[in-house]
Amino acid sequence: MFTTLEFCFFAYILWIQIQNEKVKRLILLFSIFFVCFQILYFFTTKIKRLDSIPIGIESITLFIFILLLFYEQFKTAKDSSIVNSPWFWFSTGIMLYLAGSFFFNILVNNIDKKIGMEYWHVTYLFDTIKNIFFSVGLIFAARQPNKSTGGQTSSVPYLDMI
Amino acid sequence: MFFLQATSSKVSTVLFLGTLGMLVLTISLVIFIIFHQRRVIRFQNKLQQMEQDQQKILLNASIKLQEEERQRLAADLHDDAGPLLATARLYLNENLVNQDKSTQLQSIFQARQIIDDTIQLIRNISHSLMPPTLKNFGLESAVNDLFQKISGSGSINASSRFHEYKDRLKAEKELVIFRIVQELINNILKHSSASFIHLTQNVHGDKFYLRIHHDGRGIVQADFDKLNRSTVGLGLKNISSRLRVVQGNINFEKDISQTYYKVTIELPKDEPYE
To answer: How large is the ipTM?
Structure first.
C-alpha cells in the first residue's frame, strides 16, 4: 500500500514537471500498470518483511522518469541556474532517497534481522535528506513567477517581378 | 552455520557497496548536470553579450549617420546659402541710395537673382531631408518617382509596382521605408553594376512586404549579418537600425534561378494613415 502511494506521489511530481506529452502519457500508463501489478502482487504473494520486487520496479521506473525529465530540461536551455528550479530539488531528493534505499529494499528479505535493523536506520537518513530537498524545492516553487508563451508565423505573399 | 554467516556477510557487503555505488552514481549525475548547465548559461551569456555589442554598433552607426547628415546640412548652408546671402547683402549695401538709378536697379535685380537662387537651394536641401512627394502623396508615389528618375538617367532599367497599397502606412513608417529603399537602391547603383532594378509591394495578413530584385552583384543574408557585425558597412547598419524602429525584418537572398538577387523587407502593417 505504501509502495503504491509512494510511487503515485513521486510519479505525479515528475508528471507535473515534464512538458512532453508523450512522456506524460507514458508516466500515466505505467502508473496504472504499476497499481494493477501491486494489487495482483498483494493478493498472490506472501510478503516476508518488505515487498522487495514492487519496490525494485518502483525505484528503477522512477529513475527512468527522472532521467527523462533531466533530458527534457537539457534540451530546453534556461537563463537561470538549474539550482533555482524546484523540479531539480524534487528530482534530486527522490533520486537520493531511492539510491540510498534501493539495495536495502531489494535485499531486506535475504539479510539477517539484526543487520536489517541496522540498515533500516540508514534509510531514515535518506528519507530525511529527501524531505529537506523537497522543502527547498517548495521554497523555490513558491518564489517562482507565472510564465506565459506566444508566437506566430506567416508566409510571404505574391511578390513576383510583374 | 558457517555457510549461513558467510552468506549473510556477503549480502551485507553487496548491500553496502551497492548503496555506495548508487549514491556515487546519483551524486555524479547531479554534479554533472549542474556543471553542464552552468556551461550552457555561460555560452548563452556570451551570445547575449555579442548581441548587445551588435546593438551598440548599430546605435553608433545611426549616431554617426545623423552627425554626417548634420555636417552635410551645415556645409550646404555655410558653403552655398551663406555666400549667396552675403553677396546679396553686398548688392544691397548702404551706398546703394547714393548710386544712380540704373545702378540701383541693376543691384536690386542682381540681389533678387541671388535670393531666388538661395530659395531654390534651401528648397533642394529641404527636399533632400523630406521628399515632398512622400509627404503629400505617400510612399507609392515617392518610390515610383524615385524609380522614374533612375530610369530616366538611361543607364539602368528601374521599375516599381505596388500591388496593394490603398491604406497608407503611418507617415513616420513611410519615411523609414523610403529611406531604406533609397539606401538599398544607392547600394545597388554603387556596387552591383545591375542592368535592372524592380520593386514590388504586397500585403499579407497583418504584414507589409517590399521586395527589390536586381541582376547585378549582390549579397545574401550571411553577408549582411557579417557586415552588420563588422565595423564597416555603415549604410547596412543604418538599414538594420531603421528596421528595428519599425519592428521590421530584412532578408537578402539569391533567386533559385541564380540570375538575380532579392531583398525582402517585412514589417507589421499598422492602422491606416490618417
So the answer is: 0.77
